[in-house]
Specification:
three-stranded antiparallel sheet, 8 strands, single chain, five-stranded parallel sheet, Rossmann fold, alpha/beta
C-alpha cells in the first residue's frame, strides 16, 4: 500500500506499513529535532520525497473549492492530496479538511490518532447580514467577517 504522509505523521512514532511518500512542502514544515530525525530515519528506510504534477494540484484545488475547503488548506495540504491522487495512495493525516477533500477525490485516508472525518460541504456566511458569499474573508455588502458553515 502506498501511503502519503502529512507533517503530523512525523511528530510521533506511528506504525504504518507500506510504501511511504511525502512532499518537499511537508519537509519544510518539520521544525523540531525529533520530527526531523524521524523523517531522516524513515528516508533511510525508503520514504520517497516527491512533488506532484501541476495538473494534480489544479484537480485538488477544484475539488477543495467545490467542498468549501480551499480557504483552509495550505499549499502543503494541497501537495499531499495531489501526490496521493497521483500515486493512487492513501493519506496519513488527522486534518479534517484534508480528509474531506480526499473523499471528493476518491483518495483513501488513514487517520493517525483522531477518528475519521465525516464528509462535509461548506459555505461562507456573513456574521453581520447573514448573506451567503462565494469567497473572501469579509462580506462585500456590509463588511462583517465571514464564517464557514456546513451546507
Amino acid at each position: 500500500m502506498k501511503i502519503v504522509c502529512d507533517a503530523s505523521f512525523f511528530f510521533g512514532e506511528y506504525p504504518l506499513q507500506g510504501e511511504l511518500y511525502t512532499t518537499p512542502e511537508v519537509l519544510s514544515e518539520l521544525r523540531d529535532l525529533s520530527s526531523k530525525c524521524r523523517f531522516d530515519l524513515l528516508r533511510e528506510q525508503g520514504l520517497l520525497l516527491a512533488s506532484p504534477e501541476p495538473g494534480s494540484i489544479t484537480r485538488v484545488r477544484r475539488a477543495a473549492a467545490s467542498s468549501g475547503d480551499l480557504g483552509v488548506l495550505s499549499a502543503t495540504d494541497i501537495s499531499i492530496l495531489a501526490l496521493a491522487d497521483e500515486v493512487s495512495g492513501v493519506i496519513a493525516t488527522d486534518d479534517f479538511a484534508i480528509q474531506n477533500v480526499a473523499a471528493l477525490l476518491g483518495v483513501g485516508v488513514k487517520p493517525i490518532l483522531q477518528r475519521k472525518a465525516k464528509k462535509r460541504r461548506w459555505r461562507l456566511v456573513c456574521t453581520g447580514c447573514g448573506r451567503e458569499v462565494e469567497s473572501g474573508s469579509d462580506c462585500p455588502v456590509c463588511g462583517a467577517s465571514l464564517k464557514r458553515r456546513n451546507k
